[in-house]
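[Meeting: bench + compute handoff]

Bench side (C.D.) handed over the final construct sequence. Compute side (W.E.) agreed to return the predicted structure before the next meeting so the bench team could plan truncations. Sequence as handed over:
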Amino acid sequence: MIFGYARISSGGDHALAQCEALKDAGCESITVEKTKGAAIEQPKLEKLLSSLTKGDVLVVTRLDRLGFSLMQLNDLLKELAASGVTLRSLAEKVDTADAGSALFVQMLDILSSMESAQVRERTLAGIERARKRGVTIGRPVIMTPSQIKHAAHLVETGESISGVARSFGVNRLTMTRALQRHKQSSQH
């Protein structure tokens, strides 16, 4: 069966042009999704994808209707291929049933990997710049070093970790981790 998917934004896009193009492409069923702004959730697409079976064809007017990033689009292409579903994009003339489109899919995989690496590099660079400005990265410290030292003393004198954690207003796991860090720093 041939399924169509149209995505419009709340900014005034109309689905009519996409739906007409999808009907002309032979779609027997068309799902229209309206998204707001940069929202990346597409519940109607997820529902459609879960209903597709081997041999089905998913048609879109443009590839950007399916995803908001190369990584998301690449993941979707892999998911479709694993399910035996063919993807056709009208604007880009992509048909994953064609051998010629295999090169496009491989190139998309490479570009997706590059995008992922760039995001990772920019994130790490941003963290490093923040550290140089004195910004503390990560969750805020719940217990001060003197509190941890006092808690360690209480545990060493026979108090339970759960009881000590309750008295400091933290959960048992937080207390256990704090005591482990304290023990490690005391050994050095």
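W.E. noted at the follow-up: The radius of gyration is 26 Å. C.D. will use this when planning the next construct.
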